[in-house]
Amino acid sequence: MPLTCRGRVRGQEPSRGDVDDALGKFSLTLIDSLDTLVVLNKTKEFEDAVRKVLRDVNLDNDVVVSVFETNIRVLGGLLGGHSLAIMLKEKGEYMQWYNDELLQMAKQLGYKLLPAFNTTSGLPYPRINLKFGIRKPEARTGTETDTCTACAGTLILEFAALSRFTGATIFEEYARKALDFLWEKRQRSSNLVGVTINIHTGDWVRKDSGVGAGIDSYYEYLLKAYVLLGDDSFLERFNTHYDAIMRYISQPPLLLDVHIHKPMLNARTWMDALLAFFPGLQVLKGDIRPAIETHEMLYQVIKKHNFLPEAFTTDFRVHWAQHPLRPEFAESTYFLYKATGDPYYLEVGKTLIENLNKYARVPCGFAAMKDVRTGSHEDRMDSFFLAEMFKYLYLLFADKEDIIFDIEDYIFTTEAHLLPLWLSTTNQSISKKNTTSEYTELDDSNFDWTCPNTQILFPNDPLYAQSIREPLKNVVDKSCPRGIIRVREESFRSGAKPPLRARDFMATNPEHLEILKKMGVSLIHLKDGRVQLVQHAIQAASSIDAEDGLRFMQEMIELSSQQQKEQQLPPRAVQIVSHPFFGRVVLTAGPAQFGLDLSKHKETRGFVASSKPYNGCSELTNPEAVMGKIALIQRGQCMFAEKARNIQNAGAIGGIVIDDNEGSSSDTAPLFQMAGDGKDTDDIKIPMLFLFSKEGSIILDAIREYEEVEVLLSDKAKDRAAILKGKMIPSYIINSNPEMENEEQPSSENDSQSAEQITSSSQEVDLVDQGSPEESSLNSQPESLSPADTDNAASVSPSEQISNPMENHETTSLDGECTDLDNQLQEQSETEEDSNPNVSWGKKVQPIDSILADWNEDIEAFEMMEKDEL
Ligand code: DMJ
């Protein structure tokens, strides 16, 4: 307690809740900082500290502690101390008296933790009483049902080291079992894991997934377990998860949580400080480029607030203002310096040290920041500050000869404790699980930038890292051009054009795009197909342009929020009614906020025809082909309303917009609602519906095969009786992504391909000069913006596109829809034999249970997100 200059003893200070679970009256800070002393070349002090630990520390306390924290800090601390004690002893100068006493203590602690694993799943209870274990009345623990993924998945390094040092295999076995269980429970179609899991049933309790709090070191330990233990299955697991992380969570330079079942859906609009370790892990993997990008983004947040706030929004505002002197960013800085040799990272380290000395240094140590904005302190200096922060900062600046042993012979645990790599060949009696066949072939493109040796990665280019950082240097801007003197009137007089208004903006108008650029506004195409606008005032051509840009963004935000407030419409249906489908194929379609309202009017029936140009963004060149028909148009390049007007002018009686993000599907994406253009759309009289790519391709395939394809656009599927005006034949519900239906099935090649395609297509579409990766960096959701605090970096979804997916997700119509589908499915099962064998593409009836379960999951996830936001 650096403000009151006392040690914190559990029970003697007011409880701080969960944070205190790390304290077990076992001299936490002393043990956690043992190996730091050796790294800092304080060998004598290390020897004294070890003696103190052996003399004073008691592990048999009646205290309930966190299994995870006790493992990484105390067991890890003892093992790190032991590793360096035997290294020193061998050198022949220090620790000559040492006889594995720290290891014996570690073993004693290991046995104390083992009862936590007494669950059917093998996942440990989150807490244990050091004296009484679990469950007994006096233990006051053992009734918990949930634990975090990191809590259950961050044991293998310490437990395996303990087994290999001592020959007692049980520790490694238990840690492996917990990891095996987590791997089995990964969400099979996304290959992601949730934040919390039920230790008895293995159900995911929190289904959001990121690389920060609650999951972080699970991933870290898979990769490091491979390094330490040489077991390929850990690497294969890590690579599978890493592929999923890069596919869904990584939106360089951001890392945003997603939902494990709907990984294209962001689960929140802020990031936590713990994810700052991830660039370091990416370095270990060899994926340097995204590591540089994320690290640079984090550094700019730090430069803005002096420290990394515990959580910050995607537009870099403070979300949770405290900072408990976490070491993760220093850790990543160290690894990036080791990888690149770029002195820039020494400058970063210098800034960290200066800020610590300037803002956190107090007479009795370094105090955590209560609020990074005010610089207020908390009477707290967590043990990881000495265990990790000191170690990494020292190592960042240390030359090889400053360290009395070869640091390359060790691996860092998550708490930066050092375990010797020679353990990989010692006491390998644990049977490795032969799981190779479980792993799917990974798409190598995610590893394009990986390389085991960074010397090979950029041998002749010392500016490599800088070239990646450069475009990001203004990603978190420091100043906002307030108080600019208005000289706009004069500039009008001198012939300049009036500023562009948000409501007039058209994404296809090159002049508008040029103006946007001048105002420092760039257009970003997100992975999920939405477009965002981002302004960096600093990139504007002049201060007046910057101010215009700011106003444009504010108008756009208002426009966007107006649209969000507009009524959210339920899904619509596109039903193929011509031979040989006769209404069996029903595609879930998104509604439009303009044009004929299908819930109030009779359905529209007609043959389909593709418009030319296919994007429908200009006058159609094939009006004769679409006249009296339902025109198919591709999404993108201009406003939906503009497309509608063009096909209407050509005589179309309706329109279907097909998503240009290949592989998108209504199964994996929330309902898509087409917004108007912010102007009066009363002139649009025809109905317009939206189909995701997978559903759209069903119609396109049908045209290819049967040429004449007739569809029905309606608010819900019509039964076949109505269509044939005769016998009652039910409709099929197309589930274009059957894999998503059953979590237990491994994801198909198709699936991974489609997600990949979404990613690449969003990078390819380039309406505006997107040369700067910085511009693709801000994926903030509109709801996280308020004009007052956007500084000069703001983003918003323009009106053409769907606004916040969360807000467009329909939950209000659930009841009606369930009943409807229920009937259809019941009827369908009665007439199964009536299905036409010609209809063969991936058509599948989605059981009502699965539909309901899916919806329930969504609702749960959104409720959870809301709770988190609160
Ligand atoms: C450390 O105790 C470990 O690094 C852990 O894995 C998570 N982070 C804390 C410090 O922030």
UniProtKB/TrEMBL annotation:
Residues 747-764, 773-806 have a biased composition (Polar residues). This is alpha-1,2-Mannosidase. Residues 611-697 form the PA domain. GO terms for cellular component: endoplasmic reticulum quality control compartment; membrane. Involved in endoplasmic reticulum-associated degradation (ERAD). Accelerates the glycoprotein ERAD by proteasomes, by catalyzing mannose trimming from Man8GlcNAc2 to Man7GlcNAc2 in the N-glycans. May also participate in mannose trimming from all glycoproteins and not just misfolded ones targeted to ERAD. May have alpha 1,2-mannosidase activity. PANTHER family: ER DEGRADATION-ENHANCING ALPHA-MANNOSIDASE-LIKE PROTEIN 2, ER DEGRADATION-ENHANCING ALPHA-MANNOSIDASE-LIKE PROTEIN 3. SUPFAM superfamilies: PA domain (SSF52025), Seven-hairpin glycosidases (SSF48225). Pathway: Protein modification; protein glycosylation. It comes from Panthera pardus. Keywords: Calcium, Endoplasmic reticulum, Glycoprotein, Glycosidase, Hydrolase, Metal-binding, Signal, Unfolded protein response. Ca(2+) binds at residue 414. It comes from the Eukaryota. Its main location: endoplasmic reticulum. It is found in: Endoplasmic reticulum. Pfam families: Glyco_hydro_47 (PF01532), PA (PF02225). It is an enzyme of class 3 (hydrolase). InterPro entries: 6hp_glycosidase-like_sf, EDEM1/2/3, EDEM3_PA, Glyco_hydro_47, PA_dom_sf, PA_domain, Seven-hairpin_glycosidases.
